[in-house]
Amino acid sequence: MATRAFQRLPSAPAGRILVLRLAAIVLSLCIIAGVLALSGHSPVVLAELILRSTLGSRFGLEDLALFMCPLLLTGAAVTVCGTIGLWNIGAEGQFYAGAIAATGVALGLHGPAIMVLPVMTIAGILGGMAWITVPTLARAYAGVNEIITTLLLNFIASLLTYYLTTGPWRDRISGAQVSTQRLSVSIPEMWGIVHWGFPVAIVIVIGLALVLSRTRWGYEIRIGGANPEAARYAGIPVRLRIISVMLLSGGLAGLAGMFEVAGTVHRLQGGMANNFGYLGIVVAVLARGSCLNVIPAALLMALILDSGIVMQTQQLSASVVLAITGLILFMIAIGDELAHYRPVAGATPKGNA
Amino acid sequence: MSKQPAPAGVAPGTPPVLQLRGIGKFFPGVIANKDVDLDVWPGEIHALLGENGAGKSTLMNVVTGIYQPEEGEIILDGYGQTFTSPQDAIRAGIGMVHQHFKLVQAFTVAENIHLGWDEAPRIASPAVMEARTREISERFGFPVRPDARVCDLSAGEQQRVEILRVLARKARLLIMDEPTAVLTPEETGELFRALRAFRAQGNAVIIISHKLDEVMEISDRVSILRGGRKVGTFSTADCNPSMLAATMVGRDIVRRNMRARPEGAAPIATDPVMQLRNVSVRDDRGVDTLRDVSLDLYGGEILGIAGVAGNGQRELTHVLTGLMARTSGEILLDGNLVDRADPALFVQAGVGHIPEDRLRSALAPSLSVTANMALREYPYPPIGTHGLYDAQAAGVLARDIADLAQVTIPDFAMPIRNLSGGNQQRLVARREIRIASRVLVAAYPARGLDIGAIATMLGYLTDLRDQGVAVVFISEDLEDLLNVSDRIGVMFHGRLMSVIDAEAADMATIGLLMGGRDATHTQPGVAQ
């Protein structure tokens, strides 16, 4: 009798989301396999190859960790900002700013790594913070939409990197294009090519989760994000909290840039952010506002990126890889939405009167 | 299941507009409705009474197709009906005006009327829609300004838009949930006139209300729900308010002279805890919303603030709690000048605030019950020590508050928006009373509560008074105000007309002041 068999719940239970997301991933993998089979590739061979070169081999695992490292930090940057209800779309630019600042230190300061690395770290964080300062102040004091200001600064940071790597900081030693010379110091490696930035990033993400749930500051941020009016009513200085959160967010993205320069690439290169800033937004959306969820979300994103590279070696064009990435995220988004629905028939737990 | 005869004035053989037979609706662990029979006849205004949680809203959600009943049947004009969606109910001529309006704030009145209406012209310019809206508005006798934006309208005007939306869709049965909760007395009068005109055309109205006087005034028959079941249906002419109240609550309400202090209560302090000196507030549009208000708050005293809503009460509460900066004048806390509006300053001074729109400004709806209950005490031990937030201690606090407020909460980690409005309100009130060590500013704390809960709420206020707290009690209900207040101030057009001794005050004087007439100018013996 009831044609409307489903009811939408205001909030979806975490268990249902997980189940539906897994279903979405499996389903999109089936679709991808089908399309690849039709275009003459063997999905089984490809799958085997991808598994072997990501999760199935030490080299693949090392690569995954290197991909995860910046994604963890940029994902955390966007998540932290989202907790107070703001969108930092500029992690990409802050990433570049952090990388530039760290490179500047490494190029200008000569000494033992034990001395240069901490200065580079601080410079990276400050660089990211500096890049978000104007959007922060504009947001806090003039109510300017941070989505637009942070986004626009990305292009400036990217072009500044191109300018530096082709101009004043260009590689005069080996003549590499759009790149500085190899930096004299680097973050020590802990496991193969995986540098210590990776475990530090994990610790930072866990630490942030604790700060948000277990400190007064974190509580005030959560209230400010959920209802700014209630925060004001409780006497929380919302403006100061916005400033601190946005600066923290910028600092995290800047640190990601420093890690990438000093741990993975060892040079400042044009285009080196590799969309990690934008992918941080995807990671944050997948994490649904929880810092701890950033870890599995970054892992999934790293897996997708890594598989994409493997597929490119098999004569699949980069745009096919992008389309596959999009399909997986699209299916996950559908799964998240479906998790809000439950069958109407039978008991429907919903607030009464 | 006795079939009630059609009331006088309905042609014999005419079936009721709406018949409910044995309606049952269950939620896990809760019987929201069970065995509910109801007849609504053409040309009648039928009041639905019941305490919070008596099942009124659920029943109306069943009638309007939002919920599907587990038991029973819905019969319209003698034919059985099944609504699978609210659209079905609208097509069948049932329209509901919710307590919280469902309008698009940024749209004009005309756009809101035409939104989602299948009779709206395919290509409609603003002029066409406004002309159509004007025509509808005149036809049904609800004056609106078609080109005004909804966000600029008063609550009463927004309600008229809601009603027009429903009437334009050819509703023959209009359901109104607490329609007068947000209205001024004049607006209430206008609404009732319009409802009577609607009834005179052979339509029917179901009105959900807590206000017994209004039920007596407007309704033809009254059905009372208690615990999800119908207690009975009565002809309003055979009822009186006290009998309705007793039937609704199912127990006697203890009325006490709430102004009398018990043994050991704190006396009224000699020095004021908070003072306003010629405080004025001008809003962004340059309108003076608070004009030259001076008042003193003393510990151990309840100051009632009467007045029609929208005459500066909101601004007064915001100035008293540091949420709004004054344009001129002085505010003194314990004799010290407060030089800036900072809510934190007032919180630290022990000023509690039960705001008018609790859900919008006192709660974070998407956060847990626990996080919301900690909102006032998180900076202090045991929750906040050394800059940390102790979630466990917050949980203990939330449990304490819920116990005191007599709200049962299945899961303290669920978002607080999952609770009913009445329960959210009780929790906020209890949370604020806990921290109000010096002053409590309570804006309409009884709004939306049932009779039993109102009595409890007023008891909270007098308990605080007896502990030596200065209470500011803002209300539209003169009876409540006269029951508990020691002094009563009346607000009109942002001005505090005068502050009078509640013992000596009578309804007539306050009524005149509420209408903007100064008490000193009203002379006794004037004709009328």
UniProtKB/TrEMBL annotation, chain A:
Pfam families named in the record: BPD_transp_2 (PF02653)
**Where is the protein situated, by its record's location annotation?**
Cell membrane
Q: Does the keyword Transmembrane apply?
A: yes
What membrane topology does this protein have? Answer: Multi-pass membrane protein
GO MF annotation, one: transmembrane transporter activity
The UniProt keyword set, sorted, is: Cell membrane, Membrane, Transmembrane, Transmembrane helix
Coiled-coil region(s): none
Q: Keyword Glycoprotein: yes or no?
A: no
Top-level taxon = Bacteria
The protein, known as: Sugar ABC transporter
The species this protein was found in: Komagataeibacter intermedius AF2
UniProtKB/TrEMBL annotation, chain B:
Annotated ABC transporter domain ranges read: 18-252, 274-518
Q: List, alphabetically, the CDD domains matched.
A: ABC_Carb_Monos_I, ABC_Carb_Monos_II
Topology with regard to the membrane?
A: Peripheral membrane protein
Q: Which Pfam families match?
A: ABC_tran (PF00005)
Write out the entry's keywords from A to Z. Answer: ATP-binding, Cell membrane, Membrane, Nucleotide-binding, Repeat, Sugar transport, Translocase, Transport
Any one GO molecular-function label of the UniProt entry: ATP binding
Q: Which PROSITE patterns match?
A: ABC_TRANSPORTER_1 (PS00211), ABC_TRANSPORTER_2 (PS50893)
Q: List the GO cellular component terms.
A: plasma membrane
Q: Where in the cell is it found?
A: Cell membrane
Instruction: Give coiled-coil spans as residue ranges.
Output: none
Q: Is Disulfide bond set as a keyword in this record?
A: no
Q: Where is it mostly found?
A: membrane
- PANTHER family referenced in this protein's UniProt entry, alphabetically: CARBOHYDRATE TRANSPORT ATP-BINDING PROTEIN MG119-RELATED, GUANOSINE IMPORT ATP-BINDING PROTEIN NUPO
Full protein name: ABC transporter
